[in-house]
Amino acid sequence: MSAASFSELPPLLGPRAALRPAQAADRAAFIAAAQASVTLHSPWVTAPSDEAAFDAWIKNAGPSFHPLLLVSQDDGGLVGVYNLSQIVLGNFCSAYLGAYAFAPYAGRGLMAEGLGLLLQHAFDRVGLHRVEANIQPGNTRSLRLFERGGFKLEGRSPRYLRINGEWCDHERWALTVEDWRA
What is the mean predicted confidence (pLDDT) over 78-105? Predict the structure, then answer.
């Protein structure tokens, strides 16, 4: 899937939210949402919160990186982000998944709806066999989201990813297409 074909994908619609590729036109709304959500995200993630960071994030969209936005069907606001990255097809057919909500939408169940749409994108559109999410052990909201979404704990990775300048432990959660369809 080329960068152009990814960016032209139609949204996937849920009852309350829609999942669609992030676009350059989302810059102002995204930056405002990221800046309003710094407390919500800390210390788990640092969302792109200025023009340069947003532009660098969106520029990477293409066959191996899908930056997706979850948008409220009620008011059009940005609910959250799903980053499907390191997409590898062939015999591997796997990718990594990162996600975060924006204030004031956190805690409303919309990210759970969005996770279902993201999995539809990953398994039906992209053709993946496996999606892996790496979550810091203290991030209880994300752990609950992925567990309720059918992901299974596979293990723990010490000092797995650097966040805010620190190497942080993560739990490895994954879901295969067979388990998703069951």
Answer: 97
